[in-house]
Amino acid sequence: MAQSIINTEIKPFNATAFHNGEFISVSEQNLLGKWSVVMFYPADFTFVCPTELGDMADHYEKLQSMGVEVYSVSTDTHFTHKAWHDTSDTINKINFPMIGDPTGAISRNFGVMIEEEGLALRGTFVINPEGQIKVAEIHDLGIGRSASELVRKVQAAQYVATHDGEVCPAKWQPGEETLAPSLDLVGKI
Questions:
Q1: Which UniProt keywords apply (predicted)?
Q2: What amino acid positions are annotated as catalytic residues?
Q3: CA-CA distances (angstroms) from residue 71 to 47, 61, 80, 117, 147?
């Protein structure tokens, strides 16, 4: 049985990303000190991937306003990310770093590597400023994700992190009532 990745610290990595027209170095150190989303996808120049990345690009400004940086990762190279960015209208609107993971090391660190295919599953991870994974969502290759639902999960993770003793119920939205787990609530919800 696999051990949960929740509340574990991100493992060290070094990679090159395409970001704002340049190649930049990215490591686990870039994820510390702020909230981060690491979004794995199988491959550039494919089908479901651009719909997800475009959706994330549409929500990037909202995430940035929440103090969150987004990193997309595939086992393609940073050169391939640039070529895709330059040729696709959908990918061209991306303003977050697109990390190349051609060795699969980062994908393995997060447990999303499909070894026999050399591709990553669709994995989304929300990481707190201390470098701990607070949300982990992994989909099969044919199932796309929703950035608006991710925004809600980040809001809930940030709320719980700053409100000791409170938890967010299903479908919670900012401003709605939370719960304070106690013996008095057992069997009454």
A1: Antioxidant, Cytoplasm, Disulfide bond, Oxidoreductase, Peroxidase, Redox-active center
A2: 49
A3: 19, 14, 16, 22, 13
